[in-house]
Specification:
Elements (H helix, E strand, L loop, with lengths): L12 E5 L3 H13 L4 E5 L12 H5 L14 H8 L2 E3 L2 E7 L4 E6 L4 E6 L2 E4 L3 E3 L16 H12 L5 E5 L3 H12 L3 E5 L11 H13 L3 E3 L4 E4 L3 E4 L4 E3 L2 E4 L3 E3 L2 H5 L23 E3 L6 E2 L6 E2 L4 H15 L12 E6 L2 E7 L2 H6 L5 E5 L14 E7 L6 E8 L3 H13 L4 H6 L14 H13 L5 E2 L4 H6 L3 E4 L3 H6 L6 E2 L9 H4 L4 E4 L4 H12 L4 E4 L2 H17 L1
Parallel strand pairs: 1-2, 1-7, 2-3, 7-17, 9-10, 9-15, 10-11, 25-29, 26-27, 26-28, 28-29
Antiparallel strand pairs: 4-5, 5-6, 8-16, 12-13, 13-14, 18-19, 20-21, 21-24, 22-23, 23-24
Helix pairs in contact: 1-8, 6-17
The chain binds flavin-adenine dinucleotide.
């Protein structure tokens, strides 16, 4: 094929490597902007524009038809967008000096060169593999063919048990779907909790739900060997595993870029500027293969999420079409559901803030998803981080059976807009009893945060409680007798909030930490005690957060 391009003629020729999220967003947007550009998309697999996010649900038969995962075909993309989409076509080399790539046709093993004016890499991420003896038997879940392979084993009743190595998003989603198919499933996770992107106390309710639904969790566990139909852990446990899936995380699939001498960053991805340009001005990179800049830390990081791949794919098309646009730093917002419970997060977690030495204050709360008097209200556990000086929001996590997605999306939007914890009090959010509360969970996060931010109510985090008590602080349970009898924190003294004024003599001169179920009565108690000159703080998130934290800690050491 003769090279056409800006050097030789007026038409622009753009090659795109990778025909899914980022690549196809670039291709279709560019066509809408440039009717006369020549656009060729190379995809090494047999499918383009497939729904990777739906793959686990096809295995679980929630998405019954494989066809439903295939959003477009080369033919449909040609008909509507006049795109030249070449499947089973792997780009094996980039010759930057001559601005051409080598393409291998995987069907007939032929090779050819194709020239470009601009090249876009959206080659994605591939499953991370680690040196575990026998791991070559493990399957992975990256594309439609992987899903079809796993599903066929289940459909043909060839497997009764499965071990998934790695409890990230893909591992947990796959576990839920295998369990739906009545496969006895164990998740083996090196760290102390599943979904280590979350803080432990925030993900504990999902751990409970997985276990209640029959999934076994082997936490703080390392795989020693993968055997013929089992898996041996380093602690000696042997796990039934007709099927083994490696879901140990992903790494950027950037060999092409590495071989071409493009700059690779410390976070492990292709270095790009805010227009997604690599170290070569004619080569762009988007999606899972490219690094992002964190809006919270200013540092480079990898964020493996479909929304950024799509957004940056669109942006590259704008840049190539000559528009002046730039990507904003990324916040990182994700969600996962299993067996009816959802966990979502945006921005920094407490663990990350601590690791990066970023000053932060934390608020835990457990409001209802909607008005408690209207049927079906569920608890939404929220954790919000903010900057102690400016009050700016830094991150949030949420977990519950209803209303988690909207709360985290509101906070993600607030972080994007640079809002503060106080701003959350003032947001005017939609309300009717079936959908929210007059004081929505988001407003409540603002109220609690404002009390902490302004110093009205000092708080103690569950993880610091034992040290504070060892140093002499008195822990007062201000709940009712029946709540206390149902479960209490060792070493606490019961003084229900309504009887506090009669018991002030027990507390005078002491450093007092109060707690209730979720923190609300605790706040009232702190204000009351402060009014009587007593140094009091509130256990953030109350007994509920403390229990979740302790359960997570115990699970990490006993599983
Ligand atoms: C099972 C699963 C579930 C997921 N669930 C979610 C979710 O719920 N939410 C979410 O936000 N994200 C999810 N993701 C992540 C999301 O799919 C990715 O972030 C997104 O697809 C990245 O887009 P991309 O264009 O960078 O890469 P991809 O969409 O992975 O596309 C890359 C394509 O490039 C092709 N390719 C690579 N090298 C070459 C080459 N040399 N020549 C030709 N073709 C090549 C690959 O075959 C691949 O098809 C999930 C991913 C998986 C695997």
């Amino acid at each position: 094929m003769a090279a056409r391009g800006t050097q030789g003629g007026s038409l622009m020729k753009v090659l795109i490597v990778g025909g899914v999220a980022g690549g196809m967003s670039t291709a279709t947007r560019l066509r809408r902007l440039k009717e006369d550009a020549e656009i060729i998309v190379f995809e090494q697999g047999p499918h383009v524009s497939y729904a990777n996010c739906g793959l686990p649900y096809h295995i679980g038969e929630v998405i019954e038809q494989e066809q439903s995962l295939l959003l477009q075909t080369p033919e449909s993309l040609h008909a509507r967008f006049n795109l030249d989409v070449r499947v089973n076509s792997r780009v094996t080399k980039i010759d930057r000096a001559n601005k051409q790539v080598t393409v291998s046709n995987l069907l007939d093993n032929t090779e050819y060169q194709e020239s470009y004016d601009q090249l876009v890499l959206s080659t994605g991420a591939k499953p991370r593999m680690v040196p575990i003896p026998g791991l070559e038997r493990a399957l992975v879940l990256r594309d439609v063919q992987d899903a079809v392979k796993i599903k066929a084993l289940v459909d043909n009743k060839q497997i009764k048990s499965a071990a998934i190595i790695g409890a990230g998003f893909i591992g947990v989603e796959l576990a839920e779907n295998l369990q739906h198919r009545e496969i006895k499933t164990t998740i083996v996770e090196f760290r102390g909790n599943i979904l280590p992107q979350f803080d432990p106390e925030m993900i504990e309710p999902m751990q409970k739900v997985l276990i209640e639904n029959g999934i076994e969790l082997a936490l703080s566990a390392e795989t020693e060997t993968v055997n013929e139909s089992t898996l041996t852990l380093k602690d000696g446990r042997v796990i039934d595993a007709d099927l083994v899936v490696a879901a140990i995380g992903v790494v950027a699939d950037h060999k092409l870029a590495v071989d071409a001498g493009l700059e690779i960053g410390e976070a492990g991805g292709i270095v790009v500027d805010d227009q997604m340009r690599t170290s070569d001005p004619n080569v762009f990179a988007v999606g899972d293969a490219a690094q992002k800049v964190s809006a919270l830390t200013g540092q480079d990081q990898m964020i493996w999420l479909a929304n950024l791949a799509n957004r940056h794919g669109r942006l590259v098309a704008d840049v190539i079409a000559g528009e002046t646009v730039a990507a904003r730093p990324s916040i990182g917002t994700g969600i996962i559901g299993a067996f009816g419970i959802a966990a979502a997060l945006t921005g920094l977690t407490e663990a990350l803030a601590k690791r990066m030495d970023i000053a932060h204050k934390v608020v835990h709360l457990h409001p209802g998803s909607h008005a408690g008097y209207y049927p079906g209200a569920e608890t939404v556990s929220l954790k919000v981080l903010f900057d102690p000086e400016s009050g700016k929001l830094l991150g949030a996590q949420g977990i519950g059976r209803d209303g988690v997605d909207k709360r985290i999306d509101v906070i993600a939007t607030a972080i994007y807009a640079g809002l503060t914890i106080d701003d959350l009090m003032n947001l005017e959010l939609s309300y009717a009893p079936a959908f929210g509360s007059a004081k929505d969970a988001i407003n409540q996060a603002g109220y609690v945060g404002n009390n902490i931010f302004t110093g009205k109510t000092g708080s103690v985090q569950y993880g610091d409680l034992a040290d504070k008590m060892a140093a002499g602080a008195m822990l007062v349970d201000v709940r009712s007798e029946s709540e206390n009898a149902a479960g209490h924190i060792p070493g606490s003294v019961l003084i229900p909030v309504d009887t506090l004024r009669k018991n002030l003599d027990q507390l005078e001169g002491r450093e007092v930490i109060v707690h209730c179920a979720v923190g609300q009565r605790g706040h009232t108690a702190v204000q009351l005690l402060k009014g009587h000159g007593i140094n009091a703080k509130n256990l953030d998130g109350g007994y509920t957060t403390w229990s979740q934290g302790m359960d997570a800690k115990n699970r990490a050491t006993t599983n």
